[in-house]
Design goal:
Blueprint (H helix, E strand, L loop, with lengths): L1 H23 L8 E10 L2 E5 L4 E6 L5 E5 L5 E6 L2 E9 L11 E5 L12 E10 L13 E2 L5 E2 L38 H27 L1
Parallel strand pairs: 1-8
Antiparallel strand pairs: 1-2, 1-5, 3-4, 3-6, 6-7, 9-10
Length: 217
């Protein structure tokens, strides 16, 4: 009789525990954990993974903070208790601008799902960063002409040199006639003709004077 009462009491206690667990929605499997996969990429090229970003994860219910660095081919896998979280980037990768956006994610087992075969609840977040534009500065140094003023984009004098170092001006000048364009120079005979004429006059005068001298004699 006492044995039957003990068995009945045990069955009632088990049944009550089972009803209480399902009524409260509690998760009897406390081994279920959360895991978030964070990927950091270039905003202009998602195939380019970025390392070096510092991230901070905050539990929205408890305000617990978790920090880490993305350094495995632009990917970080971080284990967390089940709950709701906010992810921010606190330090950007080298040569990239800081991403100030807050990303929210939740790690929890959906209602009504049997947790007996669930060990890990996953979430994923993709961070993007803009590349810092390279600043380039072009310095133009004006050429200085002989007069002391600035002459922009002045070409260097590349004229060939004559033997002896004198520059040859290869640019034709309007109205200029080169030596090759002149007619051949003819021999100047004006002085010779003048000498012949003077000599002839002297001979003629000498002849006249000689004749007068002979006549008077």
């Amino acid at each position: 009789m006492h044995k039957m009462r003990f068995i009945a009491a045990a069955l009632i206690a088990i049944l009550l525990c089972h009803i209480e667990v399902h009524a409260s929605g509690a998760n009897p499997d406390t081994s279920v954990v959360g895991q978030v996969t964070i990927t950091n990429v270039d905003s202009g090229d998602s195939s380019k993974k970025l390392n070096g970003a510092h991230i901070k994860i905050v539990d929205k219910d408890t305000n617990d903070e978790y920090t880490d660095i993305i350094k495995d081919n632009g990917t970080l896998v971080y284990a967390l208790p089940l709950g709701s979280y906010t992810l921010t980037q606190v330090l950007a990768p080298n040569d990239y601008q800081l991403n100030s956006k807050a990303y929210e994610f939740t790690l929890q087992v959906p209602d009504g799902v049997d947790t007996s075969n669930i060990k890990v609840v996953n979430a994923s977040v993709m961070l993007t960063n803009d590349l810092i534009a390279a600043e380039t500065e072009t310095i133009n140094t004006p050429a200085v002409n002989p007069a002391g003023g600035a002459s922009a984009n002045k070409a260097e004098n590349t004229q060939p040199l004559k033997e002896g170092g004198a520059a040859v001006n290869q640019t034709p000048v309007e109205g200029f006639i080169s030596a090759a364009d002149k007619n051949p120079v003819t021999e100047d005979t004006s002085n010779m003709l003048l000498a012949i004429a003077a000599f002839s006059i002297i001979i003629v005068i000498g002849g006249v004077l000689s004749r007068k001298y002979l006549v008077n004699k």
